[in-house]
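Risk register update: the risk of archive-format incompatibility is retired. Evidence:
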Amino acid sequence: MKGFHERNVALKCSSKTAIDSSPSPGTGSEPGPSDSKFSKTSVWSNFFASAFSIFDTYSESSACVKKASRGKNNWWTAAVKRVVSGCSMRRIHERVLGPSKIGISSSTSDIWLLGVCYRIMQESSGDVDSTNELTAFKRDFSSRILITYRKGFRAIGETKITSDVSWGCMLRSSQMLVAQALLFHRLGRSWRKPLQKPFDQAYIMFLHQFGDSEASAFSIHNLVQAGKIYGLAAGSWVGPYAMCRSWESLARCKREENDLEQQLLPMAVYVVSGDEDGERGGAPVVCIEDASRHCFEFSRCQADWTPILLLVPLVLGLDKVNPRYIPSLQATFTFPQCLGILGGKPGTSAYIVGVQEEIVFFLDPHEVQPVVNLSQENLEADTSSYHCDIIRHIPLGSIDPSLAIGFLCRDKDDFDDFCSRASKLADESNGAPLFTVAQTRSFFKLISHGDALADTGKVRENDSFGVVPMGDVDVSSHEDDWQLL
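Archived output:
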């Protein structure tokens, strides 16, 4: 982790100058190039989302109205249908939002993939170990679970929506993250996709849980239903914060449906936030007391600790990620507990699984594939649509500042190790931590209401709450960076 910070010292210094000199919102200044680019991105993204959504939702108008409208829009609808059926949604996203690159860069720096390091050397050196490392990385990457747009599934709830094309990328990205958590828990981090059939039944049963029907526990159908109270709806795009809360809700529903020994998601789910309602505050705080409570409740008061899934939604800037946070984002991939990031480019979500210097590797959900409902007994099933051999990467600095990071702690010792690493990372963040760690909720309540203490003139000189001191950083200038969705 220290290496990431040493390589980015110059980046931090230059970013602070840029932040201090940038015009504040509402001053009437002309937008800069980045603002213009972001605006165009949002407009185009919304345009395509609207255009493609007409094929997912069908009105209940009369036959004569349908016939009349068909004549006027036939040329447009036919063209867009051909695009969708041709599975070219990714090409549209790349043309509008900028292309991603394929393959591994020429850099010889280490690659970190969900907590595992691959040491890459120059190919010209002929180093057998380096070649083996590269091969091992590719196999690890292709073993991660890929979940993409699907078409042709049963309608979601009471709607007539039978595809998530153009609106479901955040849901699919979140399914991938939770799938890795389940995969690591049930089959281990060293698991690799089978090369021959018949497959192991545990693998098939695992994939079945992410099928596209209400019968599959973690389907898009059940996610939409569980996330209604957070604004999740079929046909609408949702942000990382609401997505994390929706998973928390779905996990709670499934926990109530099954006995403790038959839990489909055998882990507590803890959405980390900065204050009680999770909508505003400083850096989110991992509260050890809260984590313990989540585990105790999950076990129905039978165990002090259980496996726990931590979801940390963040907003790390306005139109782009503040460069001050990039070293810490890089370092999270070195954590053994790392599950990656729900991120991507503005207006389009992806699942980020690895990092090499300034680039990140990701799985892209924007491939439109026919629905696949795997039978739990079919050990000869075609599972190729759940894996990807194409390695894509984008610059870390280009991802959307609204994102969420996931971690899986298998037991109390693993959680303690995570807290130790997270605290060290916060200490090395130069006053810009992604999140911090505190023992109890009362500690970070005092921090989040620090303005009230300042007004009284009684701020203590030696407040050691286990939260990183901000030093000389101008907190007010970055206040908007921490407004969660």
